[in-house]
Amino acid sequence: MENVLIFGHKNPDTDTIMSAIAMTNLENKKGKNAKACRLGNINKETKYALEHFNQEEPELIEGVEDGQQVVLVDHNEFGQSVDGIENAKIIRVVDHHKIGDFKTSEPIYYTAMPVGCTATIIYGMFEQEKIEIEPKIAGLMLSAIISDTLLFKSPTCTDLDIEVGHKLAEIANVDINAYGLEMLKAGTDLSDFSPAELINIDSKPYTTNGIKYQVAQVNTASIEDVLKGKTEIENAMEDFIKENNEDLFVLLITDILENNSQIIVVGNRKDIAEKAFEVNLEDNMAFLPGVVSRKKQVVPVIDKNI
Ligand code: MG
Ligand code: MG
Ligand code: MG
Fold first, then answer.
1. What is the model's pTM?
2. Helix or strand or coil: residue 107?
3. How many angstroms separate the CA atoms of 78 and 83, rounded?
4. Cα(16) to centroid(ligand 1), Å
5. CA of 171: how far to CAs of 20, 41, 146, 168, 174, in Å?
6. In 89-134, which residue ranges form alpha helices assigned H by DSSP?
7. pLDDT tops 90 at residue 215
8. What's the CATH architecture for 4-186?
9. Which one of the ligands is nearest to 295 CA?
10. What ranges do the domains of the chain cover?
């Protein structure tokens, strides 16, 4: 039987990794030959969660061959996917993002829900198949929900995420708040990243009406601390957009305790960000109270102003 590769987006986050693992577990339990993969380095938050539940990292892949059967989780835009995706055979997508440039030549399974986390959707798939979720997988899926919803505090979080999160916590036998805070905190350790690495931990490209832009996000318990390296970070952002021919780069520095973000903006279309967030950038920066979600509070308002 042909091996199906299951993976999330480049610059993987906890949802992308855990959803690939959970979806693979579900497919395997249905008797299908599937393997979880990743398209980049595991971040510190995800590493913490994988180690906590004693789970190996998925295999790193650089690209896929023509005709390779793949399942996409936690993304659909080809620019965020594996190299060679245009000629792969996408058989299924499970995602909670806006649908971008997605296109296939054949009918596929496509499950999209506007919920806070892909793992929440996958939970429903286990239920539908009447397949029990084992405690380790439950712990990994719970980690994904905690990560994507910032412990249920992000505006992307829905009642379903909360309900599923609590069910998974019970299966995994985990105290959501204690574990969740430790896991989120593990992701805020930025000490050994160079500025170029820091802006790439959780970074995504977008193209809207011919404008190419990048939105990256780092989580922290102290925005002030991150801003100590502002000049170097800005330089790295400038280099990145030059190299990738982009018009705009927005970095969100998100305070996971207070649930606000500071943005640093560079590029020749900074005006788009100023309009989108209704701010005047000072020193390329602005403070955005209550903004924590790229998907819901950043990308849509940028798109609207392009
Ligand atoms: Mg993601
Ligand atoms: Mg996600
Ligand atoms: Mg995220």
1. 0.90
2. coil
3. 9
4. 5
5. 19, 28, 15, 5, 8
6. 118-128
7. yes
8. Alpha-Beta Complex (3.90)
9. 3
10. 4-186, 195-304
| Mean of all residue pLDDT scores within the chain | 96
Query: Residue 183, SS3?
Result: helix
Long-range pairs of 267-276 with CB within 8 A, sequence gap ≥ 24: 267/213, 267/241, 269/211, 269/213, 272/211, 272/213, 272/247, 272/248, 272/302, 272/305, 272/306, 273/248, 273/302, 275/305, 276/301, 276/302, 276/304, 276/305
**Counting ligands in written order, which one lies closest to the CA of residue 115?**
2
CA of 14 to the centre of ligand 1 (A): 7
Residue among 161, 1, 9 nearest 94 (CA): 9
Q: How far is the CA of 276 from the centre of ligand 2 (A)?
A: 23
Residue 148 CA to ligand 3 centre (angstroms): 5
Proximal ligand: closest to the CA of 45: 3
Residue 102 DSSP one-character state: -
H or E element at residue 18: helix 14-29
The pLDDT confidence band at residue 101, using thresholds 50, 70 and 90, is confident
Which tokens hold the place of 124?
Answer: 């429903």
Residue that has been written with the tokens 């701010």 in this structure = 279
CATH topology classification for 195-304: Diaminopimelate Epimerase; Chain A, domain 1 (3.10.310)
Identical fold for domains 4-186 and 195-304, yes or no, is: no
Dihedral sign (CA 244, 299, 226, 9) = negative
| 116 Cα–ligand 1 center, Å | 10
Cα gap 20→6, rounded to integer Å = 6
Tell me, letter by letter, the H, E, C secondary structure of 160-176. HHHHHHHHHHHHHCCCH
